[in-house]
Amino acid sequence: MSKTNWRETAVGAIVPIVVIALWQASATLGWINPQVLPSPLAVAEKFVEYALPLQERAPGESWLAWAVSGELWLDTLGSMYRVLVGFAVGAGLALPLGLLMGASRRAYAWFNPLMQVLRPIPPIAYIPLSILWFGLGNAPAVFLIALGAFFPVLMNTIAGVRQVDGIYIRAARNLGVSQTTMFVRVMLPAAVPYILSGVRIGIGTAFIVVIVSEMIAVNNGLGFRILEAREYFWSDKIIAGMISIGILGLLIDIGMNRLNNHLLRWHRGLEN
């Protein structure tokens, strides 16, 4: 990490540190009810407890398997599994449809009215139907996550294909390329920045939806654990779960940003 990046990280850490310090001071002075808002130290203790293994290491059990046997790691794995499967389904359907609608005016005229009717409906509204159609378990959660990921990828893909610079298209036509070559070698590469932006938004939306779906249809995951803590009024565990979600979401966004930068090196080079 360069000196500039370190400086930016240090500056960005100032506000969270100040907020945590004020939070801890208010809790220590008794200004806030610990049942309503526990102190940062209490949340940290619960977070460690949440991450620790549930039982002693069995003879012959690997250290790694034992270390990740805590509720936090098992819930994180469950949530990530649903996010990845749901996102793969949603994006896998949205990408070819978006390319088709972006490249073909006839396909756009056929499908756009339906997409514009369905797009404003939040995935949460499908919860009753998802349980009716798929029952309980991973299936309704994956369905809801796929819905959440579908439309950001679809709309960005359509926009990317339809907004290709006309100079590129005219140049390709002057060179006599076929329609297939035009799409594969000109339109698709030019649309990649839009597609990757849609992927980044879509996976973020998928992660939001998974928390809601886990509160309804499954018996593990970060969303389920927060709902369980609410039932017993474990405020510290609720906040520990929220922090876990925030950290995981941050890591996912950093990973997607780095992937975008890697795949778009040629595009950055043209811009610079």
Please write out the topology.
Elements: H1 3-28, H2 40-51, H3 63-67, H4 71-103, H5 105-118, H6 127-134, H7 138-162, H8 166-174, H9 179-214, H10 222-231, H11 235-263, H12 265-271
- Overall SS class: mainly alpha
CATH topology of the largest domain: MetI-like fold
Helix content: over 70%
How many β-strand stretches?
A: 0
What's the main sheet like?
none
Beta content comes to: under 5%
Instruction: State the CATH class of the largest domain.
Output: Mainly Alpha
Q: Give the name of the CATH superfamily of the largest domain.
A: MetI-like
- SSE arrangement, N to C: HHHHHHHHHHHH
Assign the CATH architecture of the largest domain. Orthogonal Bundle
* Cα-to-Cα separation, first versus last residue: 22 Å
Total domains: 2
Quick overview:
The chain has helices at residues 3-28, 40-51, 63-67, 71-103, 105-118, 127-134, 138-162, 166-174, 179-214, 222-231, 235-263, 265-271.
Question: What brief labels describe this structure?
Answer:
2 domains, mainly alpha, 272 residues, MetI-like fold, globular
Structure notes:
By secondary structure, the protein is mostly helical. It has 2 domains: 1-32; 38-53 and 62-271, MetI-like fold. 79% of the residues lie in helices and 0% in strands. The protein is built from 12 helices and no strands. The chain has helices at 3-28, 40-51, 63-67, 71-103, 105-118, 127-134, 138-162, 166-174, 179-214, 222-231, 235-263, 265-271. Helix 4 (71-103) packs across helix 5, helix 4 (71-103) runs parallel beside helix 7 and helix 4 runs antiparallel to helix 9 (179-214). The longest helix has 36 residues, at 179-214. The model has no long low-confidence stretch (mean pLDDT 81).
